[in-house]
Amino acid sequence: MGVKSITTLLLLGLAVLSFVSKGMAQAEDIAVAADIAVVVSSSNPATTLSLGDLRKIFAGVKRSWPGGLPIKLVTRGAGCPERVALLKLLAMSEGEYKQYWTSQVFRGEADAEPLIVPSVGIQKEALNLFPGAISLVSVRDVKPGMKVIKIDGQMPGAAGYPLR
Amino acid sequence: MRKGGIRTRIQWALLVLAVGQASSGAQTASPSDQETIAQLVEQIKQLQQQDQDLLERIKILEARQPPASPVTESEPTGATVPQQSAEQTAPPPAPSPASHDWHDEHGVQFRGYGELDYKVLNQRQPELGTYGFVPGSQGNFYTGDFGLFLTSRLTDKTSVLAEMVFEEHDAQKYDVDLRRILLKYDYNDHLKMSFGRYQTDIGYYNWAFRSAAWLQTTADRPLVMEFASNGGLLPTQAIGVSVTGAIPSGKLGLNYVAEYGSSDTIRPDINGDGLFTDENNGNQTNVGLFARPDRLRGLQIGTSYYHDKISNFVLNGPSGAPLPPPPGSPGLSARFGQTIVNGYVVYAGHGIEFLNEGFLIRDAPLHLNYAVFDTPAFYSQLSKQIGRVRPFFRYQYVNASLNNFIYDDVGLRFGPSFGARYDLNDYIAFKAQLDHTTRSGGEPDLNGLRLQLAFTF
């Protein structure tokens, strides 16, 4: 086996190793990026929520923060990863979600359906505008001014984080 | 991401080169192979240059970015939150709140619902016609309730709710009923108050389905939960104050409801005798408890206790004039203590709706040695969403004594209903329902078919 062949094999091995390690790192990045953060206004004193409370909040059952500040739900439209995570959280289909909120309004349990915003920028603006606002946002889209809160004591990216 | 892509491409190019070199050890490279290698080397150089350009660009953009923590964490954690891209973190132009439509926050939310029904009922002796159904007919169309629903938020904690219903009666005449008008104040989750005309929270059905046919799975309400103005047994509406809220109870999810108001009700006899019972009453008190346990999402278990003092003035339907009390009745001055106890177990989740409610209505004359009448009633309803179709089955039972002067028109009635609801889209539903009702007192059974197009907007 000549020097050329050994060099070739080494290069090949290095390339494969690099490819595999890069792939693993990318898989980690994808896992983190796929997490959905729960964000509130930076002025909101809340730091953590249980998954059960989060579910009650997005179902409109829990309607105020512990200090009495009214909760304002800010959501993304159908098809967004945040919407998918929301429906998963509530164990509803898109149709069931719409019917549920129509029912909540007619029951008098809500004034209106949750606010739907078309972009992360407006999502951030809504968080600034409503002190009691809460929203779901893909981790990669978290912006300065959005306060990420823990769910069941875990931040996005942690193993076992429930929203992804 | 771009850097990663370029690197991947470089690695692939190296791999191709390496494979090429390995094969060249066994044979001499042909001129065409040399050309290929030269092209690949050139591509690698180009990719390296692009990579360098991109890195430079990122440095420039990062330098322009204001110093800010990418994520405001509540506490330092070891959680990995990826850095944001330059485009995402670049400060966006600060739009003023007015630049977006926040009208829904301060304006009036306007909604509505309606229905179109077709009903066939084999009545040999006409009974009460409600919602525009003509008693004794082979079958006819009617529009039932058409409701306009308004909400408006006044402050963070105060809002107004109004529900106006155009209710069809005989000969396509319509009454306007201000079914709900509420000034609401939500102090927090534990104290939510409503002032005005409300729908009593006796049981689950009245709370869950309110007035809109579109909300209901079935085409009609169970008889016991029918609106009193349509012959229903319960005082479904009152004017006063209603308070509700969560009770700190951990995962049990306990809630309370307390109401105090006047539910002055005029109820038409449902047996078609043309008489009305004016339950000209005192003020009603209703208290209830219900639990929504965290462990079994969708389950709701509740109970309520209602008490009122009512009279039993009989009115002539067409003229509205008071009639003399029936022979043997306690007389016009008699007052009855009406107590309604309710219990329910409901499951609504995973496409399943399983409603079970029971009632015991006790009418006891006050200050008179006269009979006490208990009227038990229940309904059970099961449905399952399968795609856009929701087949359902309901069984209902009401047993009022024929000697009970308040419900002597009702008697014993029980029977099944079954059918299906088909959601054409998120706003329109079509329902088909078959009913069979057995009646006491030698009255023939009733069989009915009801088709309904219910919609919301």
Overview of the structural elements:
The complex is a heterodimer of chains A (164) and B (457). Chain A is an alpha/beta fold and 164 residues long. Chain A folds into two domains: 1-34; 35-151, Periplasmic binding protein-like II (D-Maltodextrin-Binding Protein, domain 2), CATH 3.40.190.10. Helix content of chain A is 45%, strand content 17%. In chain A, strands 2-6-1-5-3-4 form a six-stranded mixed beta sheet. The relative contact order of chain A is 0.21. Chain B folds into two domains: 3-64; 97-456, Porin. Helices cover 16% and strands 45% of the residues of chain B. In chain B, strands 2-4-5-6-7-8-9-12-13-15-16-17-18-19-20-21 form a 16-stranded antiparallel beta barrel. Chain B has a three-stranded antiparallel beta sheet with strand order 10-11-14, with no helix packed on it. The longest helix of chain B has 34 residues, at 31-64. Residues 17-29 and 66-103 of chain B have low confidence and may be disordered. The interface between A and B is large, with 71 and 75 residues. Strand 6 (146-151) of chain A pairs parallel with strand 1 of chain B.
Rounded to the nearest angstrom, the radius of gyration of chain B is 34 Å
Mean pLDDT of chain B comes to 81
Largest sheet of chain A: 6 strands, mixed
Main beta sheet of chain B: strand number and arrangement?
A: 16 strands, antiparallel, barrel
Look at the structure and give the CATH class of the largest domain in chain A.
Alpha Beta
Strand order of the largest sheet of chain B: 2-4-5-6-7-8-9-12-13-15-16-17-18-19-20-21
CATH topology of the largest domain in chain B: Porin
- Helix/strand-derived category of chain A reads alpha/beta
Biggest interface found: A-B, 71 and 75 residues
Per CATH, the superfamily of the largest domain in chain A is Periplasmic binding protein-like II
CATH architecture of the largest domain in chain A: 3-Layer(aba) Sandwich
Order of helices and strands of chain B: HHEHHEEEEEEHEEEEEEEEEEEEEE
